[in-house]
Amino acid sequence: MGAATTTSRRTALLSLGVVVVSSSTTNIEAANAGEMMVIDSRTFVSRAMQKFERNDVEGATMDFDALIEKSPGSKPYLWQRGIALYYVDEFREAEKQFREDVRVNPNDTEEAAWAFLSQMRKGGEDDASSSSSLKKAREEFVELAGRDSRKVMGSVLRLYKTGDEEAKKTLESLSKKPADSTQSASDAFYASLYLGLYSEALGNAEEAKYWVKKANGTPYGQRASGDFMTSVAKVHLARRKWDVVDEDSDKRTTGGNVEVVSTHAFDSATRRLERFPFPESYSMRIV
User: Fold this and answer.
1) What pLDDT shows up at residue 10?
2) Which residues contact 256 (CB under 8 A, 6 or more apart)?
3) For residue 47, how many C-alpha atoms fall within 13 Å in the half-sphere facing its CB?
4) 283: which DSSP letter?
5) Each residue of 196-215: pLDDT tens digit?
6) Which of 109, 115, 249, 263 has its CA 20 to 30 A from that of 139?
7) Helix, strand or coil for residue 61?
8) Which domains does the chain have, with CATH numbers?
9) Element (H or E) spanning 258, and its range?
10) Contact 203, 173 (CB under 8 A)
11) pLDDT band at 132 (very low <50, low <70, confident <90, very high)
12) Where do the H-state alpha helices sit in the chain?
């Protein structure tokens, strides 16, 4: 990297609020900068997530990259960055992000699922046939160290990893369940979303459109706030320019309030062990 490029990069990072510590910085200044990094990291992630939710995916990606520039150790925790990269068609980098994420979150099916999706889309870039891309993606499927505690993700894992038709039927069944509890509310959303993402990866655009619209139309997708994945469903529709309103979407109400806690949550033991440093989701309520 030349001097001009380095200067330009430093200027860009400073404009984003990144602390740049030069070799001439005193020890005291460096220590203060380190404290600022700890404080600012959460702000960076929150800001990037908010940009993503507004469909400013490019801006979100820049914020995530700026954070990694100043704090390289944050990278394995930035699963949201992988999703942002996916939606700006940076499939190779997205796949790398999800595969690296597994180091700190070895039980999360969603990391493996998004690595698979990214690899499938990357395969399209290489002009590989759909069948060969699918075969390669399954051969190189991310191996999880443990078991995801979310039951719906067991079916997602089997479908993505092996193409198991019974797993697909289970997800289709879950997508139709009325939201009469926290679990059924989130299961209907997640089942629909991952059926849609899977269909798109296999090149079935109309089927993908149906399922992602259905996910967005579920009570969880429409009314739960604080789960980043509900924003993913909305952004997916916006980026594909698909109409959000769909008569076939499952819009059954709960008949009352349902307390919901984000199901996209890192394994609690892993979070305690790694001292997961960034905001993810908050308690939420369907009303």
Assistant:
1) 36
2) none
3) 16
4) E
5) 999 999 999 999 999 999 99
6) 263
7) helix
8) 8-286 (1.25.40)
9) strand 258-261
10) no
11) confident
12) 3-15, 27-53, 57-70, 79-87, 91-101, 109-125, 130-139, 151-162, 165-175, 182-201, 205-217, 219-223, 228-240, 268-274
Q: Position 86: which residue type?
A: Y
Retrieve residue 224's tokens.
Answer: 């739960």
- The mean pLDDT of the chain is 77
24 alpha carbon, distance to own chain's centre: 39
- Give CA–CA dist 204/196, Å, rounded: 9
Answer for the pair 82, 52: CB distance below 8 angstroms, yes or no. no
Do the Cβ atoms of 174 and 168 come closer than 8 Å? no
pTM of the model: 0.75
Reference 146, options 99, 114, 100, 106; nearest CA is 106
Q: How far is CA 263 from the centre of its chain?
A: 12
Rg (CA), the chain: 20
The upper half-sphere exposure of residue 185, i.e. CA atoms within 13 Å in the direction of its Cβ, equals 28
**Nearest Cα residue to 109 out of 280, 281, 263, 273:** 263
Say how many C-beta atoms besides its own lie within 10 A of residue 132's C-beta.
Answer: 11
d(CA 237, CA 174): 21
Q: Is 226 exposed, middle or buried (0-12, 13-18, 19+ CB in 10 A)?
A: middle
DSSP 72-110: GGGGGG-HHHHHHHHHTT-HHHHHHHHHHHTTT-TT-HH
Q: φ, ψ for residue 107 (rounded to 5)?
A: -110, 0
In this structure, which amino acid lies at residue 87?
A: Y
Which residue has tokens 């870039």?
A: 125
Start-to-end CA span in the chain (Å): 53
pLDDT (tens digit per residue) in 134-151: 999 999 999 999 888 888
Cβ contact 214:250 at 8 Å: yes
Cα 164 to Cα 36, 157, 160, 169, 190, distances in angstroms:
48, 9, 8, 9, 17
